Amino acid sequence: MKQLLTDIQNRLAAAVQADDSPLLAYVDLDWGQVDFYEGMPPVKFPCALIDVQNATYSNEGQRVQLGDIMVQIRIVDMILSHSSAAAPAAQREKAARVFDLLREIHRLLHGWTGTPARYGRLVRKTLARVRRRDGLHEYTMTFEVVLTDDSARPQRQPVTVEQIDVRGQ
Fold this sequence. Notes:
Elements: H1 2-14, E1 26-29, E2 47-61, E3 64-78, H2 89-95, H3 97-109, E4 123-130, E5 136-149
Parallel strand pairs: 1-2
Antiparallel strand pairs: 2-3, 3-5, 4-5
């Protein structure tokens, strides 16, 4: 699971816009950066925060499991400009940039896999608006992915020639 989250974080952090500026100013695992803070949250905007929302597992035998993992990406932006129809077009465009972010994150992650031997392709499942009292503009996008977990499988130790008793003693 760690590899999955790291791969997603790296893919989002490496994404750039047409003008070669970063798509997101901050990409991290979600540890509550925009939830519990005094004044200004410890992020730069726009940001994407990544976490596992839910995981269910099925047994495949020999202590191997397949996990159906729901990964949640929180896309948060601080809107400081007006977006009314009376506002200048450039100002309205900047206020609506979160929708461009949502489209681009979907394009980057839907159908993508970073480590195919460990997990399958990500599939977007949900998109939801989060209403906040602090004025931050937040959406959550959830992706589903199947992950192979063989961490409980016993590791076989190689046998050296010295350990083999060919005489049966």
